[in-house]
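Appendix B, Record 12. Input sequence as logged:
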Amino acid sequence: MARPLTGAVVEDTRRSEPTYALRFSAYGKRRYVTLGTRGEGWTRARADAELQNVLADVRRGIWEPPTPPTVVAPVREVPTFHVFASEWFARQRIEGGRRGDGLSAKGVVDLEWRLAKHLLPFFAPMRLDAITVEDVDRYRAAKVRAGKLGPTSINKTLSTLAAILEVACEYGHVDRNVAQGRRRRLPAPAPSRKSVDRADHIVALLDAAAELDAKSLARRGQRRALLATLVFAGLRIGEALTLQWGDVDLARSTLQVRAAKTDAGVRTVNMVPVLRDEIDAYRARTLYGRDVLVVGSSKGR
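Logged structural output:
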């Protein structure tokens, strides 16, 4: 003889308003079905009646476990390249500055040039997840056809594109970085460098610069002074061209580099004696003033 079906109403009072549920056995398993809260209209009497209805359906074999509601995740909107790249660029300036290794003024100009002049005109309206490997290759081919940039400069813009899409991957906007990898880059062989690493090389270089200076009285030894600074102080050309006499301390034999590519490049350089002598001799025959460029045009530019 089959055992009678039984069940019970469970009243959960742990929350601000009671919640009602049913506990019973059906088809060889223990069941627990949540009905609802008092605020949704459930009472003890209504729950008891529902229990009897459910047990009756179980006896007839027509009861089915309630199907949990389907939760539809909201569709996440993927930003366009213009929107995302603009936000990325702003973070590079702000967050990099907080770390102390942020972009210098020149670095900001260079990065903005890559975005505004090259990447944005091509990719701006495209959604990030719509950019494909083929699109990246089409961009590269378009730059080659235009003939305004060399392989190295084109590759720099591609590196910036890859950096932006890498963050997009981390944020879940795209599944992969389609601009990553050597196959997306143009072959750009490094130029052969001419090393000046011997004393006789350096002497010959400076003497040749002095000969050229002698043919132009307006230069007053600029070529020799500039090359001596590059060779003996290790400055980049841009750093040397922005030196002012206020950055030169002959008493302490130091150069203060202020216009570097990065914040970390701002530094004090100790001059070796030979460079100090060169700079001292050059200053004696040129215009001098703290705000005057060490190496500048006749108009001070």
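The chain has a mean pLDDT of 86.
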